[in-house]
Amino acid sequence: MVGKAVFAGLAALAAAAPATAETLTVETYSPALSKAALGVRSIAVDRFAGREGARFSFMVADALQQASIRGQPWFTVLVDAGAEVDAVLEGGVTPHISEHSFRRKREVCWTENEQGECTEKREVELDCIRLMVNVRPDVRLVARDGTLLWTSTSARGDQEEFCPDVDSDPDVRSMIDDVLPDLVQDISRELTPRGTMLPVRIMERRNGLSGDDRDSFRDAIRLTKGDEAAACESFEREPRPALADVQCRPLCRTARRPCAGAGHVSHGSGLGPVGR
Fold this sequence. Notes:
This protein is α+β, with helices and mostly antiparallel strands. It has a domain at 1-29 and 196-276. The protein has helices at residues 10-13, 53-66, 172-191, 212-223, 228-237, 241-252; strands at residues 23-30, 42-45, 68-69, 72-73, 76-78, 87-92, 96-112, 118-135, 138-143, 148-151, 156-162, 194-201. It has a five-stranded mixed beta sheet with strand order 5-2-6-9-10.
């Protein structure tokens, strides 16, 4: 698994890029919303209690298992709460279903002919029902020593209105199925970092360069429009390190195209966010 990463900084450099801009695609990261979960790398997902608990726990375990940074899983996820892990995710999920009666005017068929065709319609007031499904998982992340690290505050709901005299009853099962994936994503965002591929513009400032240096730098920038890998290779081949320092070291390495001798991202590199 990957080690702890520094997530701040790159997102501030990236923004929506015009299709013709000279850009390099970099992967930016946002940390988990819950700071308490940042040190958790192995996690056991207990079998949740409640009507939807077991199924929901499997969905959450799958989502956490799929969370990855640069192709490496962020968590080691187990389904055995007794295993040696950093923390255990436990709790229960039971939907709350409620009904509220109201009256509504609807146009209905008043008379039919012998063939069952409607020959007259009238607007009448009918007894109707508003059916509401609300799901608020009671899910907690507990450290191995018993410390409560995080508690879910997410809640999702769905509702449908129908008039029994003229409408079919809503499918409650389907309504519950519609909200559970959103709740899973809420939990995943709380506990796992997020990676996003964003274009970052290459600034074309060539101050201090002259002659062949300016041409070489310009040609490398142009390559970014169609072949980012070739652009980075061009920077890497540049014998004068100043050009690699300007573009290759801070961006190509971040874009997973390592430069020879590349180190950390340098400041004052001539890079700028797209649109500024």
